[in-house]
Amino acid sequence: MTDSKPMDGRVALVTGASRGLGYAICKKLAADGAHVIAVARTQGGLEDLDDEIRKLGGACTIVPMDLQTPDGIEKLAEIVAERWGKLDALVVNAGVLGNLTPTAQLTAKVWNEVLAVNLIAPARFIRAFEALLKASDAGRAVFTTSGVGSRRAKAYWAAYGASKAGLDNLVMAWAEELEGSTVRANLVNPGTVRTRMRAKAAPGEDPNSLPHPDEIAPAFVSLCLPSETRTGEIVDAQA
Ligand code: NAP
């Protein structure tokens, strides 16, 4: 390890770490010196990530978990508190698209999953991890939003769009409450990125026309740095 790594000695937790954007964010955080706690359901994806991070000379703890598990997020906070006593960076990135369908045809099952993963889980992370972020000298929280959300509605995207609009409001309210503390909270709109979610949303699109997650990850990681001063903002990664 050299002094030039900006996340050296820092602990970062990332959700949605098994593939796509979360996987790339974990790799970048580890390359920058952080110990990464990687959360998702798919064990194989997390194990691949662990291998890649070890090859980079970094360190990772994998946590296979469904974010809808009752008390799962809260128990994870207890484990982080016992082992590290603080959290320096929290990246709440996991998300689901639901069905792109006429709004009147959205079922309660789809609404429940989309809201649970995209909105309620982030609220539970705030509740469970605020004290640990405050225990850091410079706690940083980053949430993944979307171009469809508080700034734009789109036909057939109502469940996903409503969940992201709610997320934007949740994080901006919390950021206001954090004024006077050393914690900063922001959102990133990644733009369209070459991931499984995007392929589901736009199956006719050439994935190679889109940026790879590795190209977008630095926008998230810069918001995790202790030197970051922005708070309560929606940052467009491809602006
Ligand atoms: P992705 O490849 O489908 O990744 C989604 C991640 O979320 C996976 O790691 C998945 O892991 C995890 N996840 C989903 N449901 C979960 C659950 N119940 N419990 C735990 N983990 C869960 O999609 P992505 O594009 O990287 O998406 C990442 C974020 O970017 C999302 O918030 C999405 O809304 C946002 N976004 C993406 C784009 C884009 O163009 N790709 C654009 C705007 C916003 P498991 O399935 O292993 O659990």
Task: Describe the protein.
The chain is of the alpha/beta class and 239 residues long. The chain has a single domain, classed as Rossmann fold. Helix content is 42%, strand content 15%. The chain has helices spanning 20-31, 43-55, 72-83, 108-135, 158-177, 196-201, 213-222, and strands spanning 11-15, 35-40, 59-64, 89-92, 140-144, 184-189, 234-236. A 7-stranded parallel beta sheet has the order 3-2-1-4-5-6-7, sandwiched between helices. The longest helix is centred in the middle third of the chain and has 28 residues, at 108-135. The chain starts with 10 loop residues before the first strand and ends with a strand. The mean pLDDT is 97.
* Straight-line distance between termini: 33 Å
Would you tell me which CATH topology applies?
Rossmann fold
CA radius of gyration is 17 Å
Instruction: Give the tally of β-strands.
Output: 7
Report the major sheet: 7 strands, parallel
Using the alpha-carbon principal axes, give the shape: globular
Q: Which CATH class is shown?
A: Alpha Beta
Widest β-sheet, arrangement of strands: 3-2-1-4-5-6-7
Q: Name the bound molecules.
A: NADP nicotinamide-adenine-dinucleotide phosphate
Task: Compute the number of helices.
Answer: 7
Examine the secondary-structure arrangement and name the CATH architecture. Answer: 3-Layer(aba) Sandwich
SSE inventory with pairings:
Layout: E1 11-15, H1 20-31, E2 35-40, H2 43-55, E3 59-64, H3 72-83, E4 89-92, H4 108-135, E5 140-144, H5 158-177, E6 184-189, H6 196-201, H7 213-222, E7 234-236
Parallel strand pairs: 1-2, 1-4, 2-3, 4-5, 5-6, 6-7
Helix pairs in contact: 1-2, 1-7, 3-4, 4-5
Bound molecules: NADP nicotinamide-adenine-dinucleotide phosphate.
The site of NADP nicotinamide-adenine-dinucleotide phosphate has 28 residues, from helix 1 and helix 6.
